[in-house]
Design a protein that fits this description.
Length: 429
């Protein structure tokens, strides 16, 4: 493997992370690309241009370029509204490959819309592709119902991609099961590869992280960190905080990191507004502190300052944040869904609780508050587990193996003549 194209239509590795459409996928693409480059692979990442000032090509660092594909308006477009622009995305990408006489050994598509582009490249150029869906439309629809703004076409597109992809990356056993059960995907072509963390980015802060963030040295601090969308179940954490006070007599502090802006603005992030109202209603507003979106370089301070990291989404294709907390030696209480069922080992690195059950969460929080030595041991065990299974380096090595197998079993790559034909056809239209 010498040259790989990664497609990530709505999630750029250069974007700030923590807003509504900018989270785990951005982090995944950024880290995979870095690790592949470190292993000597040249990587081009194709993502949709969403600002006028973005240059077509950014040399991100040695071996990795980001190509801003001009498809649709040069401004933010919610991912739910992006499907109509994918035809143009594919045409522009093919033109770019042809114009610059590029050759790739394989395409790694991320999310179903990038998969559509990869499938077209395969049909036209014979390029093999692997796909990571990051989320499945049918699972989302089951959990979100009417709130799911994606068009129904998504389901058929995903099913088709599962037939056409050379290999499919599931992020956890639940993800694989969902593909088989809901889409009738061929289990032989699915590999489970998790997400990861970067030890240079996330490790326990040895100096006092609380002092750095201006936090009280003695308070029991609960951290919630991630995109601010309803399905992350942050309301459940606020309810648990109120129960912790009312039923266990513990007045904890809840830090809520994430949002569309660096300041916690309820106008810019509707979910923050809703949570502020809920905290007010439950009488815990002085205990809840919203920080807004925080850059990657600041995250280790938040993870290290917390007594416990909490994440209780309704469903979770993987969930990178528990791994990041574990990397900083912080115990995790997570809902027993998706990838969290595998990253968090109940009773060993933290606890699993059912989603949407604040009572259960409050009980576990109270237990950890009363047993700080145990909490510390869970944190250490989490850190060991993170290093054992979930570094991005390890993740990328697994992906590289899969790329090799996918390319070996794919028929010939027909690039130069096919692209010339394609471009000639475009020009004559
Ligand atoms: N994140 C961040 N800054 C923030 C909030 C979140 O960098 O202010 C990152 C977080 O550290 C994690 C990612 O966003 O790496 C969220 O990924 P996760 O898999 O937990 O959720 P997803 O976004 O995929 O639903």
């Amino acid at each position: 493997m010498r040259n790989i194209a990664i497609i990530s239509e709505h999630a750029s590795p250069l974007a700030l992370v923590g807003s509504v459409d900018s989270g785990g996928q951005n982090v995944y693409v950024a880290h995979i690309a870095r690790q592949l480059a470190a292993a000597g692979v040249r990587v081009d990442i194709f993502t949709r241009r969403d600002r006028r000032t973005q240059p077509l090509v950014v040399e991100w660092f040695p071996g990795v370029r980001v190509i801003h594909v001009p498809a649709g308006p040069a401004r933010f477009v919610a991912k739910e509204s992006m499907l109509p622009h994918m035809g143009e995305f594919a045409r522009r990408m093919i033109d770019f490959i042809g114009t610059h006489a590029l050759t790739y050994d394989l395409v790694h598509a991320n999310f179903f819309m990038s998969g559509m582009v990869a499938a077209q490249l395969k049909r036209l150029l014979g390029l093999p592709f692997v796909i990571t869906f990051h989320a499945l439309g049918l699972v989302r629809r089951q959990c979100q119902g009417q709130a799911d703004g994606f068009p129904d076409q998504r389901f058929a597109i995903e099913a088709q991609l599962m037939r056409e992809a050379d290999r499919i990356i599931a992020e956890c056993p639940q993800d694989k099961e969902d593909m088989e059960r809901l889409y009738d995907a061929d289990c032989e072509r699915i590999d489970i590869v998790p997400c990861g963390f970067d030890p240079e980015e996330l490790s326990p802060v040895s100096v006092n992280a609380r002092a750095e963030l201006g936090l009280d040295a003695d308070e029991f601090i609960v951290l919630q960190l991630g995109r601010m969308v309803p399905r992350k179940g942050v309301d459940n954490v606020v309810r648990a905080l109120a129960m912790l006070k009312a039923e266990h007599g513990i007045c904890a502090r809840l830090l809520v990191v994430g949002g569309n802006t660096a300041e916690p603005d309820p106008q810019a992030t509707a979910e923050i507004g809703k949570l502020m109202q809920l905290a007010q209603k439950l009488g815990v507003s002085t205990q809840v502190q919203f920080t807004g979106q925080r850059p990657r370089s600041a995250l280790r301070y938040f993870y290290s300052a917390a007594n416990v990291f909490v994440t209780t989404p309704w469903y979770e294709p993987f969930g990178i944040t528990p791994i990041e907390a574990m990397a900083c030696s912080t115990p995790v209480i997570g809902s027993a869904v998706g990838g969290i069922k595998h990253t968090v080992v109940d009773g060993v690195t933290g606890y699993l609780v059912p989603p949407n059950q604040p009572q259960a969460l409050a009980e576990r929080l109270a237990w950890l508050c009363r047993h700080p030595r145990l909490a510390q041991r869970l944190g250490w065990a989490g850190m060991r587990r993170a290093y054992q299974h979930y570094t991005w380096r390890h993740v990328a090595a697994q992906l590289q193996q899969i790329y090799e197998e996918a390319a070996d079993s794919a028929p010939n790559y027909l690039v130069p003549s096919r692209i010339a034909d394609h471009n000639a056809m475009q020009n004559s239209l």
